[in-house]
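Worked Example 4.2. Read the sequence first, then its structure tokens.
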Amino acid sequence: MTAQIPSWLKEMVGRNKAALRTQQALEAQNGLDRAALHTVCVEAKCPNRGECLNCGDATFMILGGFCTRGCKFCAVNKQKPLPPDPAEPQKVAGTVRDWHIRYAVLTSPTRDDLPDGGAGHFAAVMRTIYAATPDVLTEPLIPDFRGQMKDLQTVLDAGPAVLAHNIETVPQLYHEVRIGADYKRSLDLLAYCKKAAPQVLTKSGIMLGLGETETQIKATLQDLRAAGVDLVTIGQYLAPSKQHHEVLRYAEPAEYAMWQEYARSIGFLGAACGPLVRSSYRAGALYREAKLQQQMSAKKL
């Protein structure tokens, strides 16, 4: 049975929607529209997009706005995608430069139609950003590349600060929620990254409200740590439409505080947990938190 959204969460979402109408947010969106760029903020109907646009932040969604899979939680359209835009690396790099962005998050729909899953395009965008603004850090939030580690290596070779890939939910719900994905494949991808490029921080995220239990959440967090994941985000699942998987419960704010404490207690360098937290929410701040933790740990040795 679908849960009723609590009044406190409605107020949070409402404040973020109101922030979309400010001059700064409108100017930021107009700039993205002029460059014909997709953002996950819009395509995935992120509830934080008003706040982020007012901060001059956006998560760029490269490789178009259509996905080759049909996950039951996701707002991105499942359609036959268009070929990659060869001008996109320059468009993204130009926007990063013009907005004076210092930490750029890049994501994409799953592109099973491409031989490398889009890995080469990720790398091209990252390298073009570095050429335009060498001091920018990038965080590619990648699909699973169908488990092809050579494609993951293509992205790692481009030099990200953080490599992100979302596990999304507990393994017991994959058959309902993540059509075409595989829990072990995602864990293997994250583990490979830590072994192949130990200097790169790894990151993953999960959603609450799909029917998972506390025991299953704990086991999933432990699996992520065992795969060497450094950073984790936990947020509330919000159904994009009535055709998507229903929301079975809404976690209270105290539960997110508990998960944040638990994640840090088992070794995550950084954890962002809250009702409207998404994988790219304040990504630069979470990265800096992790680097500070690394420095503090090094001083103790």
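Now turn to a second chain, presented in exactly the same format:
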Amino acid sequence: MKLFSSFLGVGLVAIAVACGSSSSNDSPSQPSTTQSGQPPASPSGAAPADTTDVRTFAFTDIFLGDTDRAASADVATPDSNAWKTYGYNLDGLVTDANSTDVCAPNGNNTTVVDGNNGIDNSFGKTILPLIKDYTPTPSATLSDMIKQSGSFTILATIKGLSDDPNQSATGLSGDIRAGADLGQTPTFTTNDSWPYYATPIVPFAGAYINNGTFVYGDGNITVPITVVIGGQSVAININHAVITFDHTSPGELANGTIAGVINTEDLVAAIQKVAGNISTSFCDATILQPILDKIRSASDILSNGTNASGVSCDAISIGVGFIAKRVGPPGASVPDATATPDPCATAQ
């Protein structure tokens, strides 16, 4: 289950998939139901979708795992255990504190446990509390940036959706883009033609929809996303991504999920780039290093999305939720954002 790459300097949100380790030989090695932490399977015998029908949706709300799912991130209820419900069982294992058939966390002698039904989301379990030290309401903060100012969004253009909330079809395709500043408060109607950053544009193909639930889970794409920490955008690559949502009405995508894995050292490097802008105290390596070590200790999976014993974990599983509304086709592309100067570098 894989997704998105990073958008430097853009107030995008990190979307992600949860991965984990296995703890029970009684657990199926390839779960196939939502109860076992997996999305629904491809609908048997379903006809190919009509890919001449092209629709674009803009994310209105992003849920990082600090709250329950709700009609809006602004009214969602804070919940320190909500991360357990965001993502999927990426590695096919159900891991608890006694599991021995998984990789060894980097710098941590304890096993990183899974969420509900084997959901892998070490980002939500370990990294999100670190973010909350600097952005107390990360999901609401990101969502407000989208809805109140239109300063960014994530755009999903999808070929093959119909108006039927119970649609079943195969062969859906499309792409994902980082929406740039709309320049006005969005209406989240087809009147919005959202500009987007020239790179990356992430295409996908071979998706399906089963009784209204869309699934892209081939795991062969990387999705760039951004998490906001203390007002600074941190670019993240979510590899081996999975994307799902419920197409509840023609104009809305609900219960969305993006899950995948983040290379641990890539995340460390991304945070190092912006650390001085979060707080100049982080220019002191003795202050920043314990935080970077904490990030490394969240490693719970391998960077290829699998898990195994006898090796060190080198990636962090992640799962993010979203809601999206139908908008007009993407507007003009704009140059990639320029990174904010590093005060630690200029002070040297």
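Notes for the reader: Helices lie at 122-132, 138-149, 264-278, 285-297, 343-346. Confidence is low (pLDDT under 50) at residues 1-35.
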